[in-house]
Amino acid sequence: MEGNLIIAHGGAPTAVINASLYGAIKKLKKEGFKGKILVPRFGSDGLLKEDFIDLTNISDKELELLKDTPGSAIGSSRFPLYEEEYNKIVDILVKHNIKYVLFTGGNGSMDTIGNIYKHAKAKGVDVICVGIPKTIDNDIGILDHAPGFASNANYIIQTVKDASKDVEGLPIHVSIIEVMGRNAGWLTASSVLARTKKGDAPHLIYLPETPFDEEKFLKDVKEKRDEKHGVIVVVSEGLKDKNGNPIVKPIYKTERATYFGDVSTHLATLVIEKLGIKARSEKPGLIQRCSSSLVSKIDQEEAILMGEVAIDAALKNINGVMSGIKRISSNPYKIEPILIPIEKVMMEERLFPKEYIINGNDISDEFIKWLKPLVNETKEFVDFLDKK
């Protein structure tokens, strides 16, 4: 059956999410796709409202610009979907003669495309559903890593390097930097690459995979302060105590999520009150995931590849899968694209391996070897070298 195609974005944008859209559209044009290429404005919300942007005739110039555009050029959403919405979506697909549906996103978006696949199948509707991975948290199962992670890691690494120079120049602070990653500590751990030699910042690193012990934290900070005078501590936003409870209280709730107070502010206050040491809290927040100036060249290339692989699978009528990355080697760096059954990545979080965590406050060399190939070159640096 001939038909049209939808590509939607779900969840938080990354610095390379549009690169996957670029790769998908580029592949469709190369394969001579005859249907319409539609994108819902603001993800699943736009899909339910039948609010589509038609990119069928997007110019080559506009397409090339899309590759380097930060944020989500077509919008995204965290719109909650239930039985009624999924059935409505299937009816909308039939109404608009849509044969192919692709969602770019994390495990929540893979849950969305997986449920569209299941509901279409249950209603006997012939729709090909394929996921394209995207997440800064690197918490999608099965994959070696997901597009979006490496560029965000670049930002964290550079931020910690810069902050460390400030603290070295005026060594009177304990600077606590809070990093995104509610349940998975991949991004927080990536800060370890800010070190160029032993003893460099970050001096302490705390992940959500290790139960947070307030007494041990204060002891760690005191020891580092006595040794270094100026201290850089990197913490995850999702730190939890031994009972699995967040170390800060919830301040805002939605239908699908609970938002907590700033971990960095809480810990800086503890240091001031309990140790009598000057402390500052830093929380990059959204700016860490939308930093277009620190896009990893490999991250962008792999984001494009994931879009291409997903389209290739869809046009071959391979249904209910997500494109993915399998690492073959780290030195030299080599990967191969794979297809993963969608049911294996629906709402399944991939946590940071505990074997990479040292003493609850540091990261092993094994993780550094794993991470280095992904972040050692930014796109701008490579472009500069090419011009030279």
Short account of what is shown:
With 388 residues, the protein is an alpha/beta fold. It has 13 helices and 15 strands.
What can you tell me about this protein's structure?
- By secondary structure, the chain is an alpha/beta fold.
- The protein contains 13 helices and 15 strands.
- The strands form 4 sheets. It has a 7-stranded mixed β-sheet with strand order 3-2-1-4-5-12-13, with helices on both faces. Strands 7-8-6-11 form a 4-stranded parallel β-sheet, sandwiched between helices.
- Helix 1 runs antiparallel to helix 3 (60-67), helix 1 crosses helix 11 and helix 4 (83-95) packs across helix 5.
- The longest helix is centred in the middle third of the chain and has 21 residues, at 149-169.
- It starts with a strand and ends with a helix.
Ranges with pLDDT <50 over ≥5 residues?
none
Major β-sheet annotation? 7 strands, mixed
| Share of β-strand residues | 15-25%
Mass-distribution shape = elongated
Radius of gyration: 22 Å
What multimeric state do the chains show? single chain
Query: Number of helix segments?
Result: 13
Strand order of the largest sheet: 3-2-1-4-5-12-13
Our measurement of the CA-to-CA distance between the termini, rounded to an integer number of angstroms, reads 51 Å
Quick check: average pLDDT? 94
Helix fraction bin: 25-40%
- List SSEs in N-to-C order: EHEHEHHEHEHEHEHEEEHEHHEEEEHH
Q: Assign the structural class, choosing from mainly alpha, mainly beta, alpha/beta, alpha+beta, or little secondary structure.
A: alpha/beta
